[in-house]
Write a structure and sequence with these properties.
Layout (H helix, E strand, L loop, with lengths): L3 H7 L3 H12 L10 E7 L7 H20 L4 E7 L15 H5 L19 H15 L5 E4 H7 L3 H9 L1 H8 L5 H6 L3 E3 L12 E5 L4 E5 L5 E5 L5 E3 L1 H12 L3 E5 L3 H14 L5 E5 L2 E2 L16 H7 L2 H9 L6 E2 L5 H14 L5 H4 L3 H5 L13 H11 L4 H11 L9 H18 L10 H15 L7 H14 L5 H13 L7 H8 L1 H13 L7
Parallel strand pairs: 1-2, 1-9, 2-3, 9-10, 11-12
Antiparallel strand pairs: 4-8, 5-6, 6-7
Helix pairs in contact: 2-3, 7-10, 8-11, 10-11, 13-14, 17-19, 17-23, 20-21, 20-24, 21-23
Length: about 525
């Protein structure tokens, strides 16, 4: 059997391609700091959203791939820019009036509108860490506020001050005329108001490590740039962080391409080496608009996990990270069933194919070994015809279909049953629109009921599917998709549905015959 390192060296999956870039960067040797540093960034001005989670997950996948290529130690920093000033009140926050009174203060100095933590920044940081912990990520949380106030960034800040003019030469051409007049890489923190100030810097004194700035009232103030008394503007801050921490790898969204370029130039001016970077596409909401923390549009992590297992969300993040994707409730069932398909294929694949399989990356090479005999789509339709919120009702059908199956023996399937009930109740049921069959459709559906009633006991899903096909052909459906769509719309009240043979085998032949006859005899469903 080939060695995993040999396989990883040639693997085409994007995490391995990225990991090989990092290995090349360090020349296959342990850096002087003793490890390779992966970093993800988070701005806690709004609640953590699913894009933040995706960045940590994808970076973790690259890190895991790197660990198959090399024995070099690695670390992952989840960095929170929590010393940033609160510029505006996010739309999806409680106690907006209170928050408005603390605009311009560092996020870790703004009271928590939820009343559960010492500050707004601390609350949002805790939410982020809870998400990451729940998914079992191995990471180290790093706070910008702690780094600035503890002195961890002091050497890098003094270096920034020494390179002040060169940094200004990089930044000023990127700014509008009015912004250029007051721009400085350093943002003093006012000792009186606690505000992060956007004010002109009149003098710099690298030897003393201080700047002189002018307040809005005209007063000139000299302050050290160290010890948390100044914060850097976003792009210089990013560059300084790369320099101070010696970051080796960091991802960012397509909207930050210019920021990456400018921060990279500044990092090189400081004397640092820019990390290997990767640009991913942005997630879009149901209207095709960019997802925003402050607006709270799109899906939250909690919302996805209410309707589907964690692994389906991980699959969504794994697939085509450089392509824009809609992130809304209607993508959930497809991702669940695609995850189950990849999981089912994994045991029978050669090792070289296994490390290309998404479930290898989702589970760090150790995917669960459960056989899941039913798709999420079939379970959704079972929930639909049963019209129940009781898992035991669905399990009654499942255990009859899969001999000996129990929630304990099939934990993934048990999760899917619960998720299917919730998804059906919130999204499928409100959208149901039954219609009357046409004359030909009615005849064909009646014939299907008769054919099913004559099927031998224990007929397989494939045999039942073939019978459905034959009836459709016999009644002249040139496009069989029209026949199946008629079944879905008349029997299930929806345009799309399951593989009928699998559904009938699960629901039961007598129950399906009864469902057909009930639908055809219902008031208003007379032949068109």
């Amino acid at each position: 059997m080939p060695d995993i390192r040999e396989l990883a060296t040639h693997a085409k999956a994007w995490p391995f391609q990225e990991a090989r870039r990092v290995l090349k960067r360090v020349g296959g040797k342990t850096p002087d700091k003793g490890y390779v540093l992966f970093e993800t960034g988070y701005g806690p001005s709004g609640l953590p959203h699913i894009g933040t989670f995706g960045e940590v997950l994808r970076t973790t996948m690259v890190r895991h791939a790197f660990q198959r290529l090399s024995d070099i130690p690695t670390r992952l920093f989840a960095f929170s820019d929590d010393m940033d000033g609160l510029r505006k009140v996010p739309d999806n926050m409680p106690n907006k009036e209170m928050l408005a009174q603390h605009l311009h203060k560092p996020l870790t100095a703004v009271p928590d509108p939820f009343g559960t933590h010492d500050s707004f920044g601390a609350h949002n940081n805790a939410r982020l860490r809870a998400f990451l912990d729940d998914f079992g990520f191995e990471y180290e949380f790093v706070s910008s506020t702690e780094c600035y106030t503890s002195g961890r960034f002091d050497t890098a800040l003094r270096r920034m001050l020494e390179c002040y003019d060169q940094v200004m030469e990089i930044m000023l051409p990127t700014l509008g005329e009015e912004r250029r007049r007051t721009y400085s890489p350093f943002l003093p923190v006012c000792p009186e108001t606690g505000h992060v100030l956007q004010v002109p810097v009149l003098e710099t004194n690298p030897a003393a490590g201080t700047i002189v700035y002018q307040r809005a009232d005209g007063r000139k103030v000299e302050t050290p740039v160290t010890g948390g008394r100044c914060k850097l503007q976003w792009k210089p801050d990013w560059a300084m962080r790369w320099y101070a921490l010696n970051v080796d790898y960091e991802m960012s969204g397509k909207d930050l391409i210019d920021s990456v370029q400018q921060s990279s130039r500044i990092c090189r001016v400081l004397g640092g080496r820019t990390p290997e970077t990767f640009t991913y596409e942005l997630f879009l909401d149901e209207n095709g608009e960019k997802i925003s923390k402050s607006r709270g549009n799109g899906l939250t992590i909690e919302e996805w996990l209410a309707y589907a297992p964690k692994d389906s969300l991980a699959l969504f993040m794994f697939g085509k990270p450089t392509a824009a994707k809609r992130l809304y409730f209607d993508v959930i069932p497809k991702n669940v069933d695609e995850y189950l398909t990849f999981l089912a294929k994994y045991p029978g694949e050669e090792p070289a194919r296994q490390i290309e399989n998404p479930v290898w990356h989702i589970h760090d090479g150790r995917p669960p070994a459960e056989d899941v005999p039913l798709t999420f789509g079939v379970l959704l339709n079972l929930a639909s015809v049963c019209n129940t919120e009781d898992k035991s009702v669905l399990w009654g059908f499942v255990s009859r279909y899969v001999s000996g199956a129990t929630p304990e023996s099939h934990p993934i399937l048990d999760q899917l049953v619960g998720h299917a009930i919730r998804y059906y109740a919130d999204f499928v049921k409100p959208a149901k629109r039954y219609r009357a069959p046409t004359g030909t459709e009615r005849q064909a559906i009646e014939a299907l009921a008769g054919a099913l009633a004559k099927m031998p006991a224990g007929a397989s899903a494939e045999e039942l599917q073939n019978e459905v096909y034959e009836v459709g052909k016999r009644f002249g459906f040139e496009q069989l998709r029209d026949w199946f769509r008629a079944l879905y719309e008349v029997l299930l009240g929806q345009e799309q549905g399951p593989r009928m043979g699998s559904f009938i085998a699960l629901y039961g032949v007598p129950e399906t015959v009864a469902l057909i006859r009930q639908a055809l005899s219902a008031e208003g469903l007379s032949a068109a």
